[in-house]
Sequence to fold (820 residues):
Amino acid sequence: MKTMQRSKSGVPRRARFRRLPLSVAVCLAMGQAAFAQEAEQPAAPQEQEARTLETVVVTAQKRAENLQKVPISIQAIGTEQLEQQFVADFDDYAKMIPSLSYGTAGGGVFSGPGFVQVYMRGVASGGDGNHSGSQPSVGMYLDEQPITTIQGSLDIHMYDIERVEALAGPQGTLYGASSQAGTVRIITRKPDPSGFSSAYSIEASAIDGGDIGHVAEAFVNAPIRDNMAVRLVGWEKREAGYVDNVAGSRTFPTSGITVDNSPGCVASPTRVCAGRAEDDYNEADVYGARAALRIDLNENWTVTPQVMGQKMRAYGSRGYDPSVGDLAVTHFYPESSDDRWVQAALTVEGRIGNFDLTYAFSHLKRDVDSESDYNDYAFWYDTLAGYGAYFYDNDGALINPSQYIQAVDGYRKRSHELRIASPADRRVRFVAGLFWQQQEHDILQRYRIDNLADSLEVGGWPDTIWLTAQERRDRDQAIFGEVSFDLTDRLTLTAGMRWFEADNSLKGFFGFGSGFSGSTGEAACFSPERFHGAPCTNLDKRVEEDDSIGRLNLTWNISDTKLVYATWSEGYRPGGINRRGTIPPYSSDFLTNYELGWKTTWADNRLSLNGAVFRQDWEDFQFSYLGQQGLTEIRNAAQAQIDGLELELNWAATYNFTLTGGFAWYDARLTENYCGTLDANNRPVTECSDPDWEFDRAFAGSRLPITPRFKGALTGRYVWDVADGEAYFQTSLFHQGDRTTDLREVERQLLGDLDAYTLVDLSAGFRRNNWKVDVFLNNAFDERAELARFSQCAAATCGFQPYTVVAQPRTLGVRFSQEF
Fold:
């Protein structure tokens, strides 16, 4: 039972403090409302003519530009569309972006919210997300600042957001490392000194067969002076659970000991009672705040400091075990995550003569305490190899070999970017800059077995069979620039380059105690230095590299409303360290993109049709997988090719009806065999002749995992005037084709493929004056949409018991919001 100290009022102190940011924002919004002018009701149009499409301004190329004039494949989701689709987190906007796919870290670490691996345009090999694995291939940005961390992107609550920009294809020239396959930018709404504004929103929802959730959020924009304003945002959210941890038991074959999860379990020498059964146990509580200040020093210079923080306490696992039942698992040990992060940012924008100067600083601090059930690992290794015989107590009696993980991860990320841009109206114009970044990851993971003999423990860590205590540092710095030259008034040539240096290191301890292994862990230590409390140091490696990437673009403006472009561009991910000492470091991998695209507007700005066709060559790509003893290994594996077509539609069909959609087709395949080993020159072996490689191979022509051949989203919205207000009805369809789960053929067969699915979201609402009410039904047909699949350890061992992550079941909700 959870207990907490209560105040004299009877309200839990922790609950009172965690709602403070939201309470302040709500009070300010309501308190200032009396002084704000009443919002004017928009006048009804004299004639019911067709609406025209809004001009969308993006900053994807480090300049403010009309989306329809930017010669790259980019999808922008603005404030209005985010609100219309009830976007609250990553899952909500990910389904709207056809070029984007994602998986979960899974594999023995907590697999709840905040541990998502993001991919774009089919550039995915699977197996990512380990603390000692590859850097992500898609960069995530909050405004000007990178927020990508090794084990997953921040799951930012999406309220008071200006827009989301999804840049498909290599963006390495302007965005650098981890923007190999694309970049996702979340742009917040900024303080506005021109006037006061505020709003709040309250939402309640119920999941079919699950629990009840809610959201409360508010913002205040308050001018302080004519040249200064502050914007305060707060939110609190209860994510309802829908996966049940049902009662059950499991008997280990070697010892005959049974671990039992049922509430009525009676303990005995051969029965261990866990008592963890619970309905709807994958719940989460989220609360956070954002504060930004804008100071216009003069007509040329603006300073914008911002601080944003969020705390997410999540329980259970989003994955369920089909062998147990629909949306059900039988787990025996705690599964939770306490994810706390704060991001401080400073943006300085100004002009020197006719040149724009921008400085962006960011400091991200993220701490995650997590615990995970690792019972499958123990059971399947005992079943297949009799591992239970190795675990006993101080009397020599066999014990329950169940393992569970307790982890403490600390992330620190600092970045600086200084860039200059020449006037945008000149025939020759450029953007150039300097970038520096360092990120650190303090890793502490204990794999525990209760009642373990002292002689088997890692020294100084009771009941710990395996310990990871390491520090990872990834540093990179770069010089970048792009120059555009108008060959004619209709034809523009752009060339870009980025020169970079990467310096990555991994130091610390990993492995067993000296009494359990004579070759790894403590037995492999070369220094008595204690690292984060570990008994000694057995890993201290560093890799440095430098290189450059480029971009060429030719754009033809056929008219003011139509353009076509051709692009050659490159992206990269830095190399790094394998923590298994016998395996060499892995090198950077590169993606080369050949693209032909178009941006067109028709019918007097009522219809836009944008698209791109492309081919991408992925050279010596980094492939992460679980090797011996469950250690992640990364190799520069093989070659792949991705062919694709992307389309985007926006149509204001009539004054009342609009239709928007995005569609993508991909063919992502290996072009050489993958055999799971390197030759003497550390090059991938492509002739899979050794029978020992059976479980570690894939053949040329095999599909890359995670990405579907087709993904599409289509939304129709109908509005009409009624009772001095405006009503609407909206239908959204989201379809994703089938996907493979692993690159290697044997592992793929064990885990199985992910089925295709179609989700339907319905909503309706009414707006009058400054308030509105919405009713929504998400996943209206209660589709078990398979998003990801994983096992707790290597698929060849734990793949007999895979877990599937599905979209949230049918959810009915109502929201009331008001603006001032």
User: Anything to note?
Assistant: Residues 369 and 439 are 19 Å apart (CA to CA). Residues 20-33 form the longest helix (14 residues). The helical segments are 13-18, 20-33, 79-84, 90-94, 172-175, 375-385, 745-751, 795-798.
